[in-house]
Amino acid sequence: SKQEEPQDSFNIAVFVPGVVSGSPIYEMLAAGAQSAAAEYEHVNLNIIEGGSNQGEWEEKISSLAATGKQDVIITSNPAMPGICAAVSKKFPSQYFIVMDGYLEDNDHIYTLRYDQEQQAMLNGHLAGLVTSSEMEGANDQLTIGLIAGQEYPDMLDLIAPGFLAGAKAVDDAIELDFRAVGNWYDAAKGAELARAMISAGVDVILPIAGGANQGVVTAAHEAGIYVLWFDANGYAQQPGTVVGSTSIQQDTATYDTLVKAIEGTLPYGEAVTLGLESGFITFIEDDELYTSYVPEKVRTAQNEYLEGLK
Amino acid sequence: MSRLLHSLYLIVLFIVIIFTILLLISPEPVMAFEDFVTGPFSNIYNTGNLFAIAAILIICGTGVSISFQAGLFNLGGEAQIYSSALVGTLVGLALPEGSGFFGILVVIIISMITGAAIATISGFLRYRYHIHELISSFLLSGGLLSLTDFLISNTFRDSKSFLQTTSKLPESFYLPSILPPSNLTITILIACTVACILWFWLYKMAGGYEMRVFGLNKDFAEFGNISSRRYTILPLMINGACFGLAGALMILSTQHAAIVGFSAGYGWNGIVIALIAANNPIMTIPAAFLLAWVETGTRTAMAGSSVSLEMSEVIRGMILLMITLRFFKNRRSRS
Amino acid sequence: MSRLLHSLYLIVLFIVIIFTILLLISPEPVMAFEDFVTGPFSNIYNTGNLFAIAAILIICGTGVSISFQAGLFNLGGEAQIYSSALVGTLVGLALPEGSGFFGILVVIIISMITGAAIATISGFLRYRYHIHELISSFLLSGGLLSLTDFLISNTFRDSKSFLQTTSKLPESFYLPSILPPSNLTITILIACTVACILWFWLYKMAGGYEMRVFGLNKDFAEFGNISSRRYTILPLMINGACFGLAGALMILSTQHAAIVGFSAGYGWNGIVIALIAANNPIMTIPAAFLLAWVETGTRTAMAGSSVSLEMSEVIRGMILLMITLRFFKNRRSRS
Amino acid sequence: MKNHEGIQLQHIHKTYASNQVHACDDISLSLELGLKHIIVGENGAGKSTIMKILSGDIRPDSGKIFYRGAPVSLTHPEDALNLGIGMIHQVLHFFPELTVREHLILGMKDLKPLKKIDSESIDAHIAQICKTYNISFSPDEKVEHLDAVSRQLTALLALISRNVEVFILDEPPQEVLMIAQRLNEEGKTIIVITHNINDAISFGDEVTVLRGGTLQGSYETSTITREFLANRIMGDHDSQMLLSGGKKRLSHQSDSRDLIGNPLVILEHVSGGDLDSQDQVEDISLEVGQGETLAVVGIRDNGLKALESLVAGYKQSTYRQTSGRIRILGKRARESSYDEVGYIPSERLSTGGAVSMSVIENLIMPWRRDRALFRSSRIPIYSSKRLNKVAKDVIRDFSIKGSTQDSLLSLSGGNIQKLITARALHHEPQVLICADISWGLDIKTREALFNAIEVLKSRGMAVLFFTSEVNTAIDEADRIAILRRGRLVSIIKNTEKVTAQSIGEMML
Ligand SMILES: Nc1ncnc2c1ncn2[C@@H]1O[C@H](COP(=O)(O)OP(=O)(O)OP(=O)(O)O)[C@@H](O)[C@H]1O
Ligand SMILES: Nc1ncnc2c1ncn2[C@@H]1O[C@H](COP(=O)(O)OP(=O)(O)OP(=O)(O)O)[C@@H](O)[C@H]1O
Ligand SMILES: [Mg+2]
Ligand SMILES: [Mg+2]
Is position B269 within any domain? Predict the structure, then answer.
């Protein structure tokens, strides 16, 4: 059947640098791609998981490109633009889309990223509000926590500073306790780090550590302090403990981008940064778990900040 | 007396080595050292966890000791724990919610059977087709780990959870706690019992005796008319059952659900324990405590932010190597 | 004639098994099967990669064969590849940018020395203190893997990269390509040369003869005045050097930088290859191609038909197990 | 019918897959219970093979086995043992690290995996058997410290304690044969493989002859003569001459050499041995001259093995020389090359070769670095042609049955012994150190071997020969040194007056 419609068919390969299940950002990537493909008869979609060995990603993407059958390869993660650029050298006719990454001036690569600094500022502002609030689990000390899976450029240059800046917008005296787990899976070590932070007086933590997030939530729940969530709606993780969540609409963004690619209108070579105003980054205010657990005063202040940023 | 001196010397040596390593890699070596040494006992939570980790390690180490004593190499421990824990959990989930003690027993037995079955495949292949159990257990393990990952994160995934996990077992399946709020349950008692029983079997009963002889030199076993079928398959079966037990206990006492990758590393650590304990089930107890102490110690040192995660692994590796070296040298000079 | 029939039967059996597995797990089994079988040869890129993977496997397998033939067990291959690749890369980065051929040679030699040094530790401990090389290499490997992870992702990390990796080597360090755009470089030639040389040494020269005797019968070796120190240490040294070479070649031909975990699995696969090849360096060549074919085949099948990563690992494991099974059964029936 | 009460092998065929040797060709045997049966035949005749089949060690390609009238299927030695049939192989498989007691425990029938081990009653049991059969050794001795005879005794003890009814003994030493006699008196069936025709006729009730894998016939020993038996074994060759070899050959040669030639082996006040065991020697002084055979007779673990190891310089980690001086061709032990000193160790398979390696590879061990084996004297790479030529020469010269590429494992016991001997003699060494070389060789081969040694001796080779068999010493030596508890009692000239009895008395 492949050969009957060579002219018409449009093949999309989704390369997931990791595994889909368990990672909200990749789940949204897959979902967005699936709904875009579902709209067109002639679009074939293939989702390929690359696994956790970073050393193999380039080779795996290359072998996708080598088939020569993929009209576009879409992937997501800040490391991928570099890898796609390298592959592009070997397969100059292959088109790539990289979500959540940034690379200018390669006329076969389109990148799209979210303004993570802004997103972190939103989380940071709420953290500032929480730590200085009268909420049950909050203490007098003005320290907020950020637990990362690893230290990587965007984390150090954008997220952590954004997070602190958001908090300082509440009270300039607020300090940041930043620690890295060292990997993206070890929940037990996540919990240990969280406990250490808690004993150092932190009362609200933003974990950006993949599977290790769960350990942070557990430790926070035990100690009765608060957790914020990044990238996807996380209130249900532990109602009452997770008191704030930003999200990015990677599914919609993927859908929009792919539709343009299928229609032939995607401007390859461009690098887009989506900010708050685009609507692809939000702070989730309309969740019942948010409204019921977070005092009105805090919510109002957060809403003002959110509107102000837009 | 000289024995005592020697032990003292060893302890001092350890301390110096650990401290030197920390000095090299930690920004705050004194604090890190303090965290490392006293951390595991600084609060009930840590101490309880140390015991909980040790319990699982004892069981894994004892199991591996058995197959090592039979001269068999089981490299498939990782999957034997993980897959059998999943199977046990699924059976537990299928049982009525208030199954309590009976439910716990069923989960344990099912997990043990699963673990034993997986390991037995390798034993059978070795006996029947002379395929080295080292290859078959390793390859089988690779496949099963992925399969289990797949099953947890797709087929049996709890759609309400953000984690890649099955649903949680009902509370009636939780093992009774010792030292709350730590993870310690009666696992430590079970573990010591298992180690003692297997020790007794190994050194005081005919089957264990035959198995050890078989392990010393398989080619010559014919002389004693030792059944090579029995002692190729049985040790792996016991080993697998131990891993299954370890998996079930981790589920029943700590995790309460099969989470992706939750048992990673225990299969390998079982080998390490067995090696340190020179394949003596009773000796796995101190060996496991040592490892658990190093484990919790590096964790608390890390949580105190004085050491990074990988570095803590390095320290762990170094300490293990030192222990093994000293231990073996010591043992050798005695014999 | 019956030999031929038997081979045919084996091939048919393979096909049936692979197909059955695919039928069970793939939404489009026919296509997946086609991809699996022909995928590795469907384009230059895949074929090149198959050769590139096989090259590394040949080197690892040959190295392990040598220590196996001497009756020594090196379980530390993972670290011997990984750590020595890192050391090689760092030295390469320290050299002037346009070092070219000379730079490549230095990187290779340094990596080989590093790998050999690591393995030699175990040989020395075995000879001097009677600590089993299996224990020491395994434990040492655990520590070194973590240390290498740490060094790559902290001390020597390329702060501009999003990956956990060192900086890339300059282009003058890249090995000459064969079959661009694939990853295949002259590694395959190096690999076959190494296998042939070591085969030659093993079966046609006095040193190899002595080593084999030592591996088979220590008493006979002593009878013939064969140095037990030399043949406890040398084989591990060669084995380690091979792993170091494999690490260096992966860096110089494919990765161009030491990325965290890039070589994971090759140490174990070396053992698998050696066992399949019955420790004969020449036979590691077909064994490595078989393994590489399965590897590339599952990759292309996965890329073509949306089989999940875990499932593809399961297929891979199964197929390898089958191959090993048939292979050994076959070999056994011949003897 | 008496036969139905015994053991019957019917139309047994066995072809070894690896080399297509047809080791048993339609062999049918009927062995009556309660008798002493002897199996004889040349090296490679298939004796061990047929008995391994009866003991369940290997499976026949076709044929039936009946025991006490019922057909039996023997797939594992355990099957045979459960029927009461047990075999002692000449080269025994042991766990070197275990003690005698532990070996015996292994053999116990009523051992159940969950049964506790009661070592006291086991000791009592061992003591009782030892007393009954007049065997002496301590159950705590590690098997690796036992000599070949004691190992055989251990194996026999294990069979006795398993209540075996049919004992198959593959070339047992005299000590074992003596116990077998007692066992037979108790009604047990004994099957003995031997090359010793005197033993065969004096010990056995019935003798079965095999040749080239086929059955030559079974005879009651009371009805046949040595000459007849030798003839059946070897065919129509001049078996007469061979039977009368030994001392006769010696006596006419040694007349011409009264003087001992230039001493090539010199031991001066040598002490040492395995310091952890009885196997030690003290203050040994002796000389072996050109063209002379000196036999050292003694009990193996009372210093014989130690002396052998010290002189050969073998196992230096176990056998230490504490004082004295050893000079062979003016050099220390082990310092000479293969064409100066040849060594045939007493532990044939364990130290004499690597069983899974080929005949060639086993042969070239001593001269593996010899340029003559390389493609050219510059490049140290073996030339297959040259290797093959050497191997073929040796195989031909010593009429070894087997081909160069076969593994050592696929040779018969006697042929392995030939190969190891051939290796030591091939380069015509000036000194030969050897232990029990005739062990396991058939009459013809043994004769050929000693003739070959005579030839070398006439060219000046000195032979130092260690043996525990007094008769061999008397047959083959020019002088005999008698070792007792690690000390030399005396060194005597081997004249007509010397008898086994007189030497035996000095050894005790
Ligand atoms: N495992 C084996 N594989 C292949 N061939 C074998 C094997 N064992 C014995 N043979 C061959 O079978 C023949 C008979 O061997 P067997 O051991 O039965 O001889 P034997 O009568 O015991 O001789 P000997 O007196 O030398 O021990 C020999 O030619 C030998 O080479
Ligand atoms: N330790 C061993 N390991 C492997 N094979 C062995 C071993 N000992 C003996 N064999 C093999 O078993 C066969 C018979 O050996 P065994 O010594 O029992 O023969 P035999 O006929 O009793 O010898 P001989 O005729 O020299 O007395 C031989 O082919 C030999 O290669
Ligand atoms: Mg506060
Ligand atoms: Mg024989």
Answer: yes
Domain residues for the domain of B92 are 56-281
Q: What CATH architecture is D246-340+429-507?
A: 3-Layer(aba) Sandwich (3.40)
Give the Cα separation of C233 and C214 in Å (integer).
12
Whether the Cβ atoms of residue A48 and residue A73 lie closer than 8 Å to each other? no
Distance CA A91, CA A63 (A): 10
**Range list of β-strands (E), A118-263:** 143-148, 175-180, 204-208, 226-229, 242-248
Nearest CA to ligand 1 atom 1: D410
Name the stretches of chain C with pLDDT < 50: 1, 330, 332-335
Of D314, D357, D369, the CB nearest to C222: D314
Q: What does the alpha-carbon distance between residue B203 and residue C319 come to, in Å, rounded to a whole number?
A: 40
pLDDT tens, residue by residue, B168-185? 999 999 999 887 777 789
What is the D408 CA–ligand 4 centroid distance (Å)? 13
User: Cα of D47 to ligand 4 centre, how many Å?
Assistant: 6
Which of the listed CATH numbers 2.60.40.4070, 3.40.50.300, 3.10.580.10, 3.90.1150.10 matches domain D7-234?
3.40.50.300
Tell me whether chains D and A touch (3+ CB pairs under 8 A): no
User: Which residue has a Cα nearest atom 28 of ligand 1?
Assistant: D44
Residue B107 lies in a domain: yes
The closest CB to that of C209, out of D17, D343, D368, belongs to: D368
Are C221 and D366 contacting, i.e. CB atoms less than 8 angstroms apart? no
Instruction: Give the integer Cα–Cα distance in Å for C166 and D465.
Output: 69
What pLDDT is attached to residue B320? 67
Output the six-digit token pair for B211. Answer: 């198995």
Our mutation pick for probing the ligand 2 site, out of D412, D418, D421, D441, counting the most ligand atoms within 8 A of Cβ, is D412
pLDDT at A2: 41
For D405-427, what is the mean pLDDT? 89
Interface A–C counts its CB contacts (< 8 A) at 84
Residue C112 pLDDT:
98
3-state secondary structure B218-259: HHHHHHHCCCHHHHHHHHHHHHHHHHHHHHHHHHHHHHCCCE
If you average pLDDT over residues B313-334, what whole number do you get?
60
Cβ pairs B/D, distance under 8 A: 63
Q: Which residues of chain A have pLDDT under 70?
A: 1-7
Whether B229 is in a domain gets the answer: yes
Whether D1 has a pLDDT exceeding 50, the answer reads no
Q: Which of B21, B266, B275, B314 to mutate to test the interface with C (most CBs of C within 10 A)?
A: B314
Nearest CA to ligand 1 atom 4: D410
Nearest CA in chain C to D17: C335
Q: Please, are residues D414 and D22 in contact by the beta-carbon 8 Å criterion?
A: no
Q: Measured from the CA of D442, which atom of ligand 2 is nearest?
A: 25
How far, in Å, CA of B147 to CA of D38, rounded?
A: 62
In this structure, what token pair is assigned to residue A291? Answer: 């409204």
Give the predicted TM-score (pTM) of the model. Answer: 0.85
Residue nearest to ligand 1 atom 16, measured at CA: D46
Q: What is the ipTM of this complex?
A: 0.82
Residues of chain C positioned with their CB less than 8 A from the CB of B332: 129-131
CA gap C217, D354 in Å, rounded: 6
Task: Count how many domains chain C has.
Answer: 1
Please check whether residue C210 lies inside any domain of the structure.
Answer: yes
- For residues C107 and C105, give the distance between their C-alpha atoms in angstroms, rounded to a whole number: 5
Residue B32 has pLDDT above 80, yes or no: no
Check for a shared fold between D7-234 and D246-340+429-507: yes
Distance CA B40, CA B37 (A): 7
Residues C51 and C62 sit within 8 Å (Cβ to Cβ): no
Probe residue for ligand 2, chosen from D39, D42, D43, D48 as the CB with the greatest number of ligand atoms within 8 Å: D48
